[in-house]
Amino acid sequence: MPLFRFRPLLLMYGGVLCLLAVVAFRAADEDPINRILDKIRLYTEQYPHEKAYLHTDRNAYLPGETIWLKSYLFLGGNRNIDSASGTVYVDLINPNGRRILLDTRLRQTGGVGEGYLTLPDSMPTGRYTLRGYTNWMRNFSEDWYFRKTVDIISPKSPAPSGSMGDDQLRFDMQFLPEGGQLVTGLTSRVGFKAVSSSGVGLDVHGFVLADKDTVIGFDSQHLGMGQFQFMPEAGKTYTAYVRPAGTTTPYTSYTMPAPAASGYVMLVDNLGSKENIRVYVTHNVEPTAPASGTSGAKLSIVAQVNGQPVHAAQAPISRKSFMVPIPRTKCPEGIVQITLFDDKGKPVSERLAYSSQNDQINLTVTPRRPTVGPRQRIDLDVTATDMAGKPVAANLSMAVTDAHQQPKPRPYGPTLLTYLLLTSDLTGYIEQPGYYFDPANKDRLLKLDLLLATQGWRRFTWDKVLAETLAATQYPVDPGLTLTGTVYRGTSRNPAANVALTVMMTRKDSTRDLFTATSDVQGRFLVAEAELVDTTSVFVQASQGNNRNFTVTLDKLFSPAVRLVRPPFVPFDVAYDELAEFLKRQGEYQAIEAQIRRNREIQLQAVVVKAKKADPYAQQRGLFGRPDASIKVDDINSAGALTVFDILRARVAGVTVTGTGMDASVQIRGAANFSGPIEPQFMIDGMPVDKSAVASMSPRDVAYIDVIKGAGAAMLGSRGAGGGINVITRRGGDTGDYLNKVVPGVRVEKVVGYMPKREFYAPRYDNPTPEEKVRPDYRATLYWAPMVKTDASGKATVSFFASDAKTTLNIHTEGTTLTGQPGAGETTLKVQ
């Protein structure tokens, strides 16, 4: 069955009866629309796009505080949470965009992750950029990275100049013909947008003149945006005169876009019909003579949402006016990109419209008590439902902040909902995005249509989609922090195939993982399930039989580049005089914290300590402590030894080594049962391993060989029935710098991995510590819960305690279902 079918429709537009061929899924092979739809399919298959989003506990911080983060990752085509990527990279960039100050990696599990950034104490006041992205997103423009502004407010440094008090009457004006161009003799609809010098929309009044005659007057309708209709005439120049509404300031003149002598005009009606988005097309382009055997040239219209075609239609170019209905039932929630193509398949006109399907969730947070007192327990009931009121399971994040310790937020600010459904697919600053999704605003869809008539679009550009060949991507989809590298023969650059590798990873908390891998024909190897957290020491040893003369290299994990980053434009409207309490309270809180730290520093008198020297290998010996016997490996006893077992042979009483190489057998006297002798548990640095891992080690990498018997072996549990052999690797010679020691077949490096987990500190005043009883509490963020999950009944409960401040608490919650239905909720609670 073909993917697209013809379906004839009789449509009336402007009194003209038009026969349209509506393409439901596939056009005839000779039509350009066939090529267009194939190109869209190939493009979206090769370049599926992702959307990352970061929820932070606040938007303004003091130096030394912590930015708490929750990451969400979506597959852009269908908005499903949990894309294939397993890591979201987060950068904090300085105000001029030239330096990355902090960066981290957040592990994505089920499409969500959590982490934090600790701000240095010395950060100056300014507007910083926080951005989030995946390795796959690096293949495309950085314009599509998630970006938000974060204000750092330091009492020690002044506010940036020009942050307040800009002249709001200075403005810029843009005129944007619907569909892209004005055409002489055809009635067009022109959108316009006025933006003040501070970057926010400015209401204006104006009129258009031609030859000193007024053609039409206009007024903005919402945040400086508006539209009007007029028909340009040949030989006339049109000038618009505009001034801020309600003022008597002089008009500013703007030359209107010049009309084309011939072309296409497209008008989209997204409000007049409940069943369809109606697309009206008029043009004055003369058709070319049809080729023999063809039915004549056709114009094509394609509608798509998130790169997925939802409707296509064709009409003969001989028809000067026609209308195409796009059924709303075909359009999922989101921006509909409607494009008109000429008879050669070239895009000639485009318009964006919004498909509202109520595919969102309602989030309601209800305090169990209308007011609470300082340090009293607060219980919140969270409810998640779809737009029909049915409960849904959702993954949410919640931030509770002191309203008096944050800049007053702009109304209808950005949320996960507004980002996922609207702003992530538009360029430029979107003012008050929440306005268009608040059901209380009865005109929200009208104003949203006005926004899409005046806002830029760049995610899906036709010159790239219709290109003859698609460029190869440079960066793969990375399901996690994968450890990769290459093995070379000797010191050459000749790849070594079929080399066995033992990879040991040791984390800061002394936990270890051991992996084995084999190099391929290019000498490449991969450890896909590496648990890289914080700073991990990676030990790699290569061997091929008794040959260890290899060079091992490890690929560097991605580190963000230091390059110019254009901060997202957001009006710098922080009123610093309104933050007096924030600065005062936080200054006092930080002073108290500093005093507590000083009080903990106890000056000790000089004493003489009599104790045995600490065992430098205690961490590598694990639970069994001191061994029953130990061999210190040196150049003498390791001379001629090919394996660790050759050193052990005949050097420890009661330990028997038979055989050679990988076939060696080890037995500790007395270790036997009814089935015969039992080999000991083998370990490397206290980590249980297979005997082959010990046999493959180079004797040059070994510091000690420990033999464990009796009570020490009992610490190994059932694995220690045959005793234990623990091989302790070198940490370096006299300098202790093993990382810089060149050993054939061995590579040791430190790798920075995922952000280690850290819990948000929230005191519990029902059972306070002695210190919490006396410590003043004026936290700006009272509670941060990145992983609130509603159950099948749509319910969840969170609890925490108020601080000492008598204030208003802002409770902000946002999140999504597994199928990408986003939601956001806001409520307040009085502490008095």
Write the layout of secondary structure elements.
Blueprint: E1 6-13, E2 16-23, H1 32-46, E3 50-56, E4 60-61, E5 66-75, E6 87-93, E7 100-107, E8 112-118, E9 126-133, E10 146-152, E11 171-177, E12 188-196, E13 204-210, E14 213-219, E15 225-230, E16 239-244, E17 252-255, E18 264-269, E19 276-283, E20 298-305, E21 308-316, E22 321-327, E23 334-341, E24 347-355, E25 361-367, E26 371-372, E27 377-386, E28 395-402, H2 416-421, H3 444-454, H4 462-465, E29 483-489, E30 500-506, E31 512-518, E32 524-527, E33 535-543, E34 550-554, H5 580-600, H6 618-621, E35 629-632, H7 644-648, E36 655-658, E37 665-668, E38 672-673, E39 676-677, E40 681-684, E41 687-688, H8 691-695, E42 702-708, H9 710-714, E43 724-729, E44 746-752, H10 770-774, E45 781-789, E46 795-801, E47 808-816, E48 822-831
Parallel strand pairs: 4-10, 26-48, 40-43
Antiparallel strand pairs: 1-2, 2-21, 3-5, 5-8, 6-7, 6-9, 9-10, 11-12, 12-15, 13-14, 13-16, 16-17, 18-19, 19-22, 20-21, 20-23, 23-24, 25-27, 27-46, 28-45, 28-47, 29-32, 29-34, 30-31, 30-33, 33-44, 35-42, 36-37, 38-39, 40-41, 42-43, 47-48
